[in-house]
Amino acid sequence: xxxxxxxxxxxxxxxxxxxxxxxxxxxxxxxxxxxxxxxxxxxxxxxxxxxxxxxxxxxxxxxxxxxxxxxxxxxxxxxxxxxxxxxxxxxxxxxxxxxxxxxxxxxxxxxxxxxxxxxxxxxxxxxxxxxxxxxxxxx
Amino acid sequence: xxxxxxxxxxxxxxxxxxxxxxxxxxxxxxxxxxxxxxxxxxxxxxxxxxxxxxxxxxxxxxxxxxxxxxxxxxxxxxxxxxxxxxxxxxxxxxxxxxxxxxxxxxxxxxxxxxxxxxxxxxxxxxxxxxxxxxxxxxxxxxxxxxxxxxxxxxxxxxxxxxxxxxxxxxxxxxxxxxxxxxxxxxxxxxxxxxxxxxxxxxxxxxxxxxxxxxxxxxxxxxxxxxxxxxxxxxxxxxxxxxxxxxxxxxxxxxxxxxxxxxxxxxxxxxxxxxxxxxxxxxxxxxxxxxxxxxxxxxxxxxxxxxxxxxxxxxxxxxxxxxxxxxxxxxxxxxxxxxxxxxxxxxxxxxxxxxxxxxxxxxxxxxxxxxxxxxxxxxxxxxxxxxxxxxxxxxxxxxxxxxxxxxxxxxxxxxxxxxxxxxxxxxxxxxxxxxxxxxxxxxxxxxxxxxxxxxxxxxxxxxxxxxxxxxxxxxxxxxxxxxxxxxxxxxxxxxxxxxxxxxxxxxxxxxxxxxxxxxxxxxxxxxxxxxxxxxxxxxxxxxxxxxxxxxxxxxxxxxxxxxxxxxxxxxxxxxxxxxxxxxxxxxxxxxxxxxxxxxxxxxxxxxxxxxxxxxxxxxxxxxxxx
Lengths: 139, 625
Fold this sequence. Notes:
CATH class of the largest domain in chain A: Mainly Beta
Shape of chain B: flat
Strand order of the largest sheet of chain A: 2-4-5-7-6
Number of helices of chain A: 3
Number of helices of chain B: 18
Structural class of chain B: alpha+beta
Shape of chain A: elongated
Number of strands of chain B: 11
Distance between the termini of chain A: 69 Å
Number of domains of chain A: 2
CATH architecture of the largest domain in chain A: Beta Barrel
Structural class of chain A: alpha+beta
Oligomer: heterodimer
Number of domains of chain B: 4
Distance between the termini of chain B: 56 Å
Number of strands of chain A: 7
Order of helices and strands of chain A: HEHEEEEEEH
Largest sheet of chain B: 6 strands, antiparallel
Order of helices and strands of chain B: HHHHHHHHHHHHHEHHHHEEEEEEEEEEH
Largest sheet of chain A: 5 strands, mixed, barrel
């Protein structure tokens, strides 16, 4: 009924469409699995259920809270309303210091303990991640 | 002072010339002469000169530490070494936009003198479209980001340049990257001109391919320089982090690579015309989007110099205008000529290139969604998320397998209609690749099946292109070298990621740390004073199990202006592996935070990108028979 060319083009279109749909589905699916949410200590405090997924916590490193031994760095992240204890074994960025902003990525053990797998690097002394600014209510 | 004013007025003159150029060239458009009026060329040259003068006077202000200039005040300091005073010129928002303008005007001038054999109307239209972009950027610079703002009273000392930007690789990274990034503007302008003149043809393809290649080469090299810098300066111990700022440079590269391939189809077969135009528009749009995202402060990184919403809005509006303009022109003027589409066969070079393009578009959408989705979500729901490397790895790595296989077979196919020749030799090569991959991977990782398949595909591409280079007739050396570079890149990235090992620990001076593969000894620290920083240099001795020792001396620098602490990694590079050590100091503690990494084949990643670019460069100088 239809010419070979039309059939071929139809096949081509179907192929194109299926692969596009497949690609979009795949991308969205793995987006769901690999997204890391950002939360402040207060938000964690008000959680009803503990997140099992990897999250990021941002705030300030509490003054006089850093304790270092040969394999761990322990410190407290605060947003001046609530705070959370963090244990971390890994490389710390240069600008990691008491009284400065910090973003830690990792897993919640409970509402007060966070086991970090990564502490994010900053680029300058005065820089504060927008998330932290918001969490701290700085305008 | 004087330089400041010269710079500023040169910019205004440059903008006025743009308007004048538009007028003169529109007048010239309707003249019946074969060649463009000499005045147009002279004006374009003059415009370039004005922008260069403006740029040079900014450099001069930086060299002289003229703090009556606000940009210099914000980004320079008298104690900074001369080299970084100069590179500081483009290490800030205002200066880097001036560099944008410089590249825009440079490219259109080069285009005019290099396209003398092309139709006159097409050349004039290209000039006009490019001038629209140039005017936009002139206005942007003058209205929102004037590099020559005057400061009174004149401060005695500047604020200094962010120390992590004081680095040789990063000094040349912006100019090189811009040649590629902004170079895509000429492809955009000329493709619009070609559409309006109905000149999207084999001849046009042949002529524009050189410009695509130039942008592509510089973009590849620019991305590589940025990546090398991130590797040793940021101390994260890797070369690619899927950071949004890296992604916005990768997206135009992917689009440009797709364009580079299908322009060959246009050149040979006069097919895929609409697709070529769409890709040209996309590439430049992605470059502009990147500029918007990076400059508006939406993405936070070392590239975000100042958050000024006016700048973001200006670029956004300008971007919108350009997109509407280009799509409008495309839909009004473009007539698809279907004649050639009829003899498209499944097994042919053009189909394989089309498949390449599909993959490229897929990779592009992955990167695009991963980059834009968090911003999008933040805007609509103010939920803050980040998309990490696993997202990209999971979505890209499996698709590399068919991509690499098609890439090995594709170039062997003939145009129009083809058969797979030398089937047995291909099968043999494939078998060798799989066996080799299996025996290498077997002992290295838990995920044997996946990596074996991936590595075999990369080996297969490597061997087939290598064979093509040395055994078969050298009919397309540039392509074979570029593909060889790509296969080498994938192989080095794979082995690098499988074999890398890392030790992170906190150590005091004099301590020894033993681990399964050797021993790290923290010998001593030394302090030194330089003009613009104090440094703490640590001496480490790393022994492996065979007792071989390397000494590594990472550094912590405390810059005085602005006060910033940076870590300088120390890296011992050999052909086989990099030994990388970086340390950090936590204030008020005697412990140093040490990160020691062994990264195999690191240097091969850079070598492969150089090979890739070399392939491109050879294509540039090749004259087709």
